[in-house]
Amino acid sequence: MDTTLPPASQPSDVLMEPPSDLMNDPLIEPFSSLTENKPTSKIVSEPSDDFVDLTNNLADSPEDAAESVLADVAIDTTEIPLDEPSDDFVDIFGGETEAPREEVVIANVTVKAAAAADKSEVTSDVTDPPGDLKTGSDFEQEANETATDSIIDLSDDLLSSNAQKPPLASDQFVDPLVDFLSDAPPAADAKIPSRATVDLFEDEGNDLFTEPRQTKSAKQQQKSLFGEADEDLFGEPLGATTKKPVIKEPKGKPVPTKAARDVSNMGGPLQDGYTAEPADIFSEEAVTTVPSIKKTSAVNSKTNGVHSEEDTDIFAEATVELSLDSPQEERKKGVPAVPSASAPSVSAATSLAKPQSASLEELDDDEEEEEEEEEEQEDKFDISISVKDPEKIGDGMNAYMAYKVTTQTPLPMFRNKTFTVRRRFSDFLGLYEKLSEKHGPNGFIVPPPPEKSILGMTKVKVGKEDSSSADFVERRRAALERYLQRIVHHPSLLQDPDVREFLEREELPRAVGTQALSGAGFLKMINKATDAVSKMTIKMNESDVWFEEKLQEVESADQQFRKLHVLVESLVVHRKELSLNTASFAKSTAMLGSAEDNTALSRALSQLAEVEDKMEQLHQDQATNDTFNFAELIADYIRLLGSVRGSFDHRMKAWQRWQDAQAALQKKRETEAKLLWANKPDKLQLVKEEIAEWEVKVTQYERDFDRVTATVRKEVVRFDKEKARNFKREIINYLECLLQSQQQLIKYWEAFLPEAKAIA
Amino acid sequence: MRSVSVDLNHDASLLIDIPDALCERDKVKFTVHTKTTLSSFQKPDFSVPRQHEDFIWLHDTLVETEDYAGLIIPPVPPKPDFESPREKMHKLGEGEATMTKEEYTKMKQELEAEYLAVFKKTVQVHEVFLQRLSSHPILSKDRNFQIFLEYDQDLTVRRKNAKEMFGGFFKNMVKSADEVLISGIKEVDDFFEQEKTFLLDYYSKIKDSTAKAEKMTRSHKNIADDYIHISATLNTLSADDSTANKKHCGGYYMSSFVFLQKVEGRVASDQELKLTELLRYYMRDIQAAKDLLYRRARALVDYENSNKALDKARLKSRDIPQAEEHQKQCLQKFDKLSESGKKELTSFKGRRVVAFRKNLIEMAELEIKHAKLLRTWLAMV
């Protein structure tokens, strides 16, 4: 186990991530991360000179997750002299995006086979989960070409400990882990300042990253002047940096701790995997290693979310092999495979960096930046959509609003880089209908469009050019833009032909039946779904704690969001009132100024009136800011939460179907027994056929349910992530608007001050 | 917090303040503390308990004193009004169930602060009233004023009974009817003519401004209250969320909303203090000045009437000396009134300008201060 430092540390770096995989969904993860294997292994074998270009290219490619991994690798490989052209990279990527997913799987299999052929000792059983780990380590070996033996030793060790005596393994390593945990906090503290600033400013631009650390820490200090602020500012960094100590760890006590981490993580699942549900594993893990796992999971889940689309397909195929096993067994296989499977991707990265600079400190930085970059990259998806120029077409009650939808993207799946189409509101609704029909049952969270508003639209139709109808149109335009952006930023929805058609095609067939979505109808639908969910929950014996908790969370979030929405609306109303009152005060002050007989005071008063006039404008702008940056965002999330619940609902439905099928199968079996007893061979044959049929159905439905469950899980994780990011961005945006108005306010009052002083 | 609305140049010989006040149900007991070097007082330093009604009594006796007709009698302080915070407190209690505990606590704190502010303001206006009396060269010598300050027992001012209340009401009616009558009288003096038009105009304007400013401040307060609820809801929202990231965000933004609320609340209370109070005070002061003009006009009418009476007497050759005497008295009274009125109004003008200047500067500075604070905070976020 403690033969050599580098190989041992590699898996550990990698294995920080597994727990999160476990949390996400053990069933799918192995396969998804296997797909990651391919790109990474390629990188290992064909590095590139100009990796900067490479990263750029990669950033343009649609596969965000893989890309981030690649980007990481690329960063790590900076200093490695490499011969092969970077073109290959892009090719691989291009190929992968367009190529059918089976190819990935095949590639995987071949890799596995190759690994098996290479190392005979390791290949004792390729199909076994630990075998995957070895394939992972094989990649490392290819990359490293130095410490091959030790890695095998390690993996052998791991293999044996995992496969044969999990309890022992965990026993051995629990202690170091505890040590490590107690050690971690100080380390994390040390890192906080720089990290905190990075995080705070990440939305403002990259340049801050490149700035020297000193500035950051200086800013940090400034911030700490605010008593309240501190806690909050530090709240995140602590969570964020907990990842670092883990990486840093190799320095301090290299082998045992890291290995302990691996094995305890793996050992846990193994131990529990046989008896308990994956969710349990998660909760147990969470208790013991909360901080680090949480963060890693957050980072990882992102990757997973992006991959999800591929995953499901692969999964579908992959499960065919496994489908004969009981779900329990399936899980058993899935769980142990998780850590090993996801291992190679990052370990390859680390191992590449190692030969050049053993400095782990650097690695830390890299990793840190990787994280940032990952986040950044997700921010700027390669497709940007804008909805502009709302235009009223037609007259009277047949009038409708058409919007210009402009798409800008370098993605090869579109014919042009930039294109614009005109769409009317019902087209947007139609798109949603299609998408939710197609993807809803699979557990995807389809972003909902804004509701139809009969009142608002009637006003527009009647043609009143007052501010409220302009306000309405602008609100709707922004909501539609956000709606489309959410769709195209969803990796699987982007692939949908209907989305492409919506964005690209000149003429769309008129969407019909969108009336069902109008106003109250839409709300009713959501409510119905909610009711159904609650009803089903009672019926369904929820075996998954995660879902139970999540559902509750969603419910309460929904409630809170609704409350918040009401509050923000009232804030807007009050702000508008303030604006009005300020205006009337300004007028009144102007009158007072004209009545005043002291010239200087009179002037000051009329100046004050002017200031108040400007304030009125500021308040008005602020009210708009309240509305657009805050109230609308919340309204969006109320709608989105409805969709989330819808996806939960679909999961229930899948479960219901499975249960029904099982009941039917049970009945058939009973009939069979009866017939057997009654000795009626002719009918028996028929029933047997039916049983076979139902058995197939049951397995299929069960698989469906598992798949939907996995998708929902992934989707919800993605949703949470998005939500957090979205909120952060929007609120920062909001506060920035506020900042600007404050700046204006200062200007106005400062201009007024000398006037007041001039009163003699 | 001291004498916000009026800038008084204190005469060290008579210093008055209200260091303490006690609120018992509807009554507020003020402790009036006097420090003096004047020999007319028995002790150089003493305190007496006084109620709002005592202040009213003092004001009324001053107004009724003939000799002070030519002076602007400082406006009587408004009755302590704790109704609005009390009512709000009541409402809050009713709405307790709909709020989170934290939200409730915060709202309560806010209301308590508001209550305290109202209380302080009440004490302050009463103090200002006394200080204006004490700084006035003639009024400070008033016997009743000295009794008010010195008499250490309860003044047991006769509270107005119903009849007197009605009488007061009737008097007001007569006065306003008179005002209408008198306003038609041709003014002999340009200064007073100007002053009259100015004050009438100014009064209506300032009344309007005061109402508007009040509304504006209230809106500000509403916004501050909204922020409280929003931050509390955000807090619950983030507490519910299991994602570590979100938790941080929620708390983080919640704290910014708490901050927003604080700043907005402070802007509101400062506006209230510096602007609304100023306007309100001068609204009352102008009313007092208008009363002075009314009294002068009354005297003018008396004088004119006495002139007519004298003419009549001369015509009838009867009671001429009496009429002459009366006419002379009226003229004297009117002249005296005009003279002191002129002085008073001029000083009032200067006082008003100074007070406006001071308050406007202070308000502008406070606005800048708050905005800068908020800006610094936001820039860091």
Report on this model:
The complex is a heterodimer of chains A (760) and B (381). By secondary structure, chain A is mainly alpha-helical. Chain A is built from 28 helices and three strands. Chain A has helices at 5-15, 18-24, 29-45, 51-60, 64-76, 87-98, 101-118, 129-144, 148-163, 166-201, 207-210, 213-224, 227-241, 243-252, 254-273, 278-288, 290-322, 327-356, 360-379, 425-439, 454-462, 467-488, 491-494, 497-504, 519-539, 545-595, 599-678, 681-757, and strands at 384-393, 400-408, 418-424. A three-stranded antiparallel β-sheet of chain A has the order 1-2-3. With 381 residues, chain B is mostly helical. In chain B, 72% of the residues lie in helices and 7% in strands. Chain B is built from eight helices and three strands; from the N terminus they run βββαααααααα. In chain B, strands 1-2-3 form a three-stranded antiparallel β-sheet. In chain B, helix 3 runs antiparallel to helix 6 and helix 7 (244-316) runs antiparallel to helix 8 (320-380). The radius of gyration of chain B is 27 Å and the shape is elongated. In chain B, 40% of the residues are buried. Residues 1-7 of chain B have low confidence and may be disordered. The interface between A and B is large, with 73 and 62 residues.
State the gist of this model.
The complex is a heterodimer of chains A (760) and B (381). With 760 residues, chain A is mostly helical.
Could you outline the blueprint of secondary structure elements for this entry?
The complex is a heterodimer of chains A (760) and B (381).
Chain A: H1 5-15, H2 18-24, H3 29-45, H4 51-60, H5 64-76, H6 87-98, H7 101-118, H8 129-144, H9 148-163, H10 166-201, H11 207-210, H12 213-224, H13 227-241, H14 243-252, H15 254-273, H16 278-288, H17 290-322, H18 327-356, H19 360-379, E1 384-393, E2 400-408, E3 418-424, H20 425-439, H21 454-462, H22 467-488, H23 491-494, H24 497-504, H25 519-539, H26 545-595, H27 599-678, H28 681-757
Antiparallel strand pairs in A: 1-2, 2-3
Chain B: E1 14-24, E2 27-36, E3 45-51, H1 52-64, H2 83-94, H3 101-135, H4 143-150, H5 162-183, H6 190-240, H7 244-316, H8 320-380
Antiparallel strand pairs in B: 1-2, 2-3
